[in-house]
Amino acid sequence: ISFCLLPIQICSDQEDRHNTYGETGKKEKVLEDFKAELEKVKTEAENSEEKLSDITIERADLTLEFNKLISRKNVLSDLEKEYDGYAGSVKAIMTAYEGNVLRNKIYGPLSRLINTDNKYIVAIETALGNAGQNIVVETEEDAKSVIEFLKQKKAGRATFLPCSSVKGRKTDVSEFKSLKGYIGIASELVETDKKYAEIISSVLGAIIVCDNIDNAVLMARKINYKFKIVTLTGEVIQVGGAITGGSVNKATGFLSRTAEITAIDKEIDDKYWDMVKSQLFRPELIKEKAGEVK
Known about the structure:
The protein is of the alpha+beta class.
């Protein structure tokens, strides 16, 4: 009977070994899969640490640049608020007006009432000269009242531009608009409230803006030195032929300062959104995930 059962026993043993090998194979496969997944997680952790480091550095750089821009803007804004660079009389008038000591209709220095494209700033500042500090008021009576204030305070002298009395000038450009280097009449290259149009025309309406000194000299000869000409780099040919030129400190002009504040505002806005984008990576979560994997 035992011999008869032997083949059955052998088959059973073979089947057990086959099952054992199958189970072992499955376990080995599971182990390999686990190892592969572990390697993947480790790699992700290393990448997360790398990414965290990059983001941290980026955020630190952005924060530093952002703070520098804020500081620069604050400095320039303080200079504007304090009327830095303006005559003492202008500072006294505007301080009194802003403090409600003077209740006249005062609109401010002319240079603060106009805007121009950055490429024209030097030319327009040159064309304005000291007129950029002239005080724009509503009427002659306002001018008289403020002049009396200056006398009482012994605060110096100032020039006033009443909107009610100043009249602009119309320049016929037909004889020189086709000349080489001609850009335009200075009054046409600025933006301002229509209320001040006559004043702007009066101050800048007879000044030609030319691209460079060479073309300005040729232009002046052809129009017989009848008009003042300024170049984009600040040279001046006066009526009659006198020439002024040299180095120009772009940082000291009133229009330049206003333009820089505007440019910084845009940079601050751009940097802010760069910082917001860097926050979207949520580095604190990346760090937390990396720590869990370890």
